Every structure is written in structure tokens, then in C-alpha cells.
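FAQ: What does the model actually see?

It sees only this:
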Amino acid sequence: HQTFTDENGAKSKHTINFWNPDGRRQLTQRNRALLNRLKQMPVWEKVDYLIPTMGPAGELTYPPTWTTGNPRMTFWCYGPYAQAEFRRQMQEKYGTVQRANTSWGTQFKSWKEVRILKPGSYPGSYWRDILTWYRDSKRQFARWHVASMQELTDKKLMLYVPGHHYTEAEWKHAVETGGKRATNSIK
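And it is asked to produce this:
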């Protein structure tokens, strides 16, 4: 289950699902096997840098639109692993579902009901929590992956992190609208 699910139910291709509880073990195992194979090749001694795989082209923008067939960027945090991780982190942040409901303006009856709703739903603090969690999940995975790769090799790592800059105003707009019609740079 290395796919992501977007807000419309579409599944990604060729991606590393960083919310999969077994994903890091699988990725470490794959990277170790790949590096061991490369070390047996004569070209290994000529390699100065390695690029940790973060996606189909080495990027952390998940998933890139060119792999989905959909030119419009969407949020890819609607699969079961993402939903469970969001719930877990919000429970850690708020403690009780009642506190979360008070902050978000929602009416979830229990943590089992808490889920990431579609963009445009409950703008404000609820959407700020989603955006912050989404962004920080990617950052945390990238940091872990780089550290993991560095443990496997003495080669220098080169990061390929294409991305988008977004302004404070764009972030504020995404929070205020619940991500609805947010610029591509937010995702």
C-alpha cells in the first residue's frame, strides 16, 4: 500500500506513502539492497553523490501531477494511513475530541470519527491543522529519509527538492477557505 489517495478517491502511482506504518522499514530494506548491488558494480568508485529517492523523479512533491494524469494539484491525504496518522496527531495535540471540536467548530463524537474532510469544509483552525500536519509530515519524512540514506553509505547526498514557494498571504488564504481554490503552491 504505497499509494496515496486524493480528495476525489484517485490513487497515486510510483510514490512512497510516508504514512504507511511499514513504509520506512520497506524503504530502508529496498535502499540497502539497491546500494549493495551498486557497490558491486565498477561504476561505484566513480560515484560522488547519491540522490535519495523521494518520488518518481526524486522529488518530494507528492505525487507530481505528471504521474497522475490530472493537471490540477489535489491534496493526497485521504487514504487510510493518512487519516489514521492525522487522527493520532490531533489526539496528541488536543487530548479530547471535545477540545478539537471547540477549536475546529466540528461535532465529531469520538476520535474514531475524526477525519480529513474535503477542501472547503471547516475553514479556519481545522484547515490550519490539516495544512500544518500535511506539510510537516512531508518534512519529517524527508529528514528521516536523508538520515536513513546517510547511515547506509559514506557517499555525499544531493537533494533534489523542487517545490513551490508560497507566501504568508497564500497560506492564510488556504486556511481561511479550507484549502478551496488554494494556489498550486500550497500543495
